[in-house]
Amino acid sequence: MQSWLRRKDIDKLTVHEEGRRLVPTLGWPHLVALGIGAIVGTGIYTLIGVGADKAGPAVLLSFIVAGVVCACAALAYAEMSTMMPAAGSAYTYSYTVLGEAIAWIVGWSLILEYSLVVSTVAVGWSGYFAGFLQWVHTQTGWNVMLPTALMAGPHAGGVINLPAIVITFLVAGMLIAGTRESATLNAILVVFKLIALAVFIVVALPAFDSANLTPFMPYGFPKSIDAEGVERGVMAAAAIIFFAFYGFDAISTAAEETKNPGRDLSIGIIGSMVGCTLIYVLVALAAVGAMTFTVFGKSAEPLALIMRELGHPQAALVIGIVAVIALPTVLLAFFYGQSRIFFVMSRDGLLPRSLSKVNPRTGTPVAITLFTAVLVAALAGVARLDEIAALANAGTLVAFIAVSVCMLVLRKRDPNRPRVFRTPMAWVVGPLAIFGCLYLFWSLPHTTQKWFLVWNVVGVIVYVLYSRRASLLAKGQNV
């Protein structure tokens, strides 16, 4: 049993062998942009429609519930990341505090989270790209449309979602070129994305009609199943909309590449979370107030649809174009996080060590980035948006629970260890994050819970047959 719960030495987390070290090149502006780039994306551009379809106007409450839980988890992340400025995020914290077997499950769940998030965003981007091509065709008569078979997966009547695959490999190429270069471009695109959301708020808020908020909670608060077998309610929507809030955890994966992690990580995590919460509340209020939710609830591009229905095609065009240009910032942030999780697990020996080599010229892990691109592109080519978003949420909820538990355990086990950032009211915030995440997990679709269980059963098998014996700790090494 002891071998299953062996832990890494917290004082040696930043000691790594030559050729497997990531280069510190990022400052807090890069991290805030990385966080906002990750958080503000498919969740608000596309999943607001999915949420409104499940909760009606009470989707506003769904945003609040998901936001409170994420805020508590963000505070725990801020404390843990500044105490352990090493790549790996929740996986690394769990390895140090809870033991190898639990860390493996958390890492395996993070692989699921990041892979599915990137796939979800790629599919969401493809929907806006299709809308943009349709507009170009309508305005110019140019035949720029791709065949339906190449614009959607089998679930939507197509064969493969080619745009989703292409954008995945383009982002992978950016990350291979260099971390700082990718982060700088990401920061520029984030500004465009925020401008587009500001345009939506300014145009939609004047059309606010309180009649669109009635009935406010047509499907009730707890998760329920309607006559058509669809799961609805405020909490059912919150469990999906939760996807729209996380992304700050991608910042913690950048700890090893941050020049001043003690200061910059907490600024990045908390700053991006506060800014995005304000943006989301305003956008959601403008959306459900401007139009009845039944109109945009099924749309693949709900914000652009609302603009067109309100008679503002130019604003719809701006939102559509910016979504096409700027949604890849979400891809970049989560793709970055995914490759770093893979990288650290490989460096620890839990995955093949050959994947954790760093390119000496760019300072990036090329092999693991390409491996991630192939995995994600294969999924994005055939996946369905709402289903993969829900499954990604399951992996994230496990990671959030693990980080909150790690924070509380270390408060007891090592209370005197220096903490650059201390979570206020930790014994209130930590349990609130844990139980909030558990309730959101319970509110996920039953099929999602089953698939998540299957994923982790496969993970345990991989760990028992390979990773437990291959890990560096099993060989008496702690680097």
UniProtKB/TrEMBL annotation:
Topology in membrane: Multi-pass membrane protein
GO MF term list: amino acid transmembrane transporter activity
Species of the source: Lysobacter soli
Record Gene3D superfamilies: Amino acid/polyamine transporter I
Gene Ontology CC annotation, any one: membrane
Keywords tagged on the record: Membrane, Transmembrane, Transmembrane helix, Transport
A family per Pfam: AA_permease_2
Keyword Plastid: no
Transmembrane stretches, start-end: 31-51, 58-78, 90-111, 116-136, 156-176, 188-208, 234-255, 267-296, 316-337, 363-382, 388-410, 422-442, 448-466
Protein name: Amino acid permease
Cellular localisation: Membrane
Principal subcellular localization: membrane
InterPro entries recorded: AA/rel_permease1
